[in-house]
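Review form for a predicted model. The reviewer records the input and the model, then writes brief findings.
Reviewer: anonymous (R2)
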Amino acid sequence: MNSRQKDILRLLLLEREGYTLVQELTQKLKCSDKTIRNDLKIIEEFLKDSSTAYLVKKPGLGVFLNMEEKDKKMLFQYTQHDTAKGEDDRRAICIAYDLLTSRKAITMNQLASKYYVNSSTIRTDIEKVKRWLNKKDLVLITKQKVGLIVEGDEKKVRFALSDLSSLITSPISVEQFWEDKFSRFEIDTVKTELHHMESLYEMKLTDEAYDRLLMHVLIMVKRVKTRQTIKVTEKEQQVVKNAKEIRIAAELLKRIGESFIVRFPEEEVSYLALHLLGTKVRNVPLENHQKMAELTDEAPMLEKIMETLLTRMSALMIIDFSKDSELRKGLSLHLYSALNRLHAGFQIKNPMLSDIKKIYPYMFDMVIYVLDEIKETFDVTIPEEEAAYLTIHFQTAIERMRKQDSGKKRSVIVCHMGIGMSQLLQAKLERHFPQLEVIDTLAKSDIDPYLSQEKVDLVITTTSLENVPVPNIVLSPLMADSEVEKLEGFLRDLNSTQQKPTDRDKLENFLDTSLVFLELEEEHRYEVIEKLAVALHEKGFVKQEYGHSAIKREQKSATYIGSRVAIPHGAPSLINHPAIAVATLKQPLDWGGEKVSLVFMLAIRNDSRDTTRHLFKQLASLTDNPESIQHLIGETDAKAFLEMLHHKMVNQ
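Model under review:
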């Protein structure tokens, strides 16, 4: 649908009084009756293909959108996407790929001719690509009368190529893009050799790690063929010199080289070995944590970082994590590969980052807080992508503590995200559904042989499966409340054991009209944070430095939690009295890669742990109702805004 048709759909979604006259739509959208009626036909076709909702039309009354509640959120989210943006994003990815892989400068005219757009459009694309390249520590140089060329370290170029999806926000198929760049022979050959490596060396990769390694090897083949090889430092070579990963990498590249008729230099072998050191594996014990001491002369020991993490998280959450052996094992395994990745300069893409921040905002924030202390103590900067994985490990530990015991139905989990996600899903299943016994967690490739040997009553999977001979259901690995309801419907013979929250901390205890700012016109998120912090300071709720502290926190990890909502906050030590300031934005602002229109600035101390955790959860749950957020954003009176917010929270 085009932008106007999405506007019509959004207006129908917001209509609560019943039918909407076509004349009302023509006035609001400034177009003819005929245009609106033609648009409604297109909307009808869209609804028929994508949901159970449908339009009801009655002469004299107008048009009404009949739908179930479950369709409402999906349709609202769809109306937020810019239709033209998908094509723009695909072109931006292609341009970035051209610039990263070309050994010669490319002119603006060449790009304009290749993609059939004018020079103004290409300049806009180039600016977007240039900003993205800067984030990857690469520079796009413009050489007069020559053209554009990317300059930077080969490692950074390869990482940028493997992370092209981070350049865009619209849901287009990056996977299809890569299938266009590599032949089916290339993809299948590398896949075969990776499976051979797993089998030969008994090192089962997570599905996510497997896909990432596949991409890096394919890129390596292309770069070596064009003589764009990697440089590895002497210290990095020493790290892998005696590690088993160097032998694995050498054997893998030897076999791949024979298939592609290419010879890989020794530095490429070392580079791949460093990748393998930082690769997430499934249920494989660590052979030697002492290897971490080899990474750099001043690097902290893995055990010291882990003990600090356990001690500080135990203190902040008032839960003793130190005796949880499963948590220790999971943290040890993850930190080992994570610290290897950081030392080698490899970044990891966490596809669940936004969902984890939304569903577990309090736990995520506590992990970020502790990692900041670890940075000060050990001089190790652990990025938010890794912090999100650590959040899952701690949340899993809490779920284990809460789970109930009862008679069980034999079930297996097929999870493509690794051991941490598998354990979290298992803990939640056993907590909410005591009749389920999770007897194993598997990779997608293991399910068929497993079912041929074991009696299994149910398969719970995070990725679609084909021809599975037992009942199966696809769930998100995070298993939000809506997923619990989905599984309840699937398991008709089970009674729900979901525990609903008993009491709620009321938001009005922390809000008043003097802390509500509607339709702000600030142009940057830091300006919004500063304005709200100044208001909190003038009322005596926080110290003057609170705004600066909140901006520093924002720089570590954006506080966007979904559905155009952000929850910035600063250091608890700078809070005098608990309060929340709120702002709506006249135009959505970029908030670390996502658009935000509603901002809650929290000033809640750690000594109010239960209150803080509940407020985080309550605000996060608001994002499950985009219609409520749309109404809040449209409000122009502070008192009415607070009344509406209270009403929506009470009725969640």
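Findings: The CA atoms of residues 199 and 455 lie 25 Å apart.
Further findings: The two ends are 31 Å apart (CA to CA).
Recommendation: see findings above.
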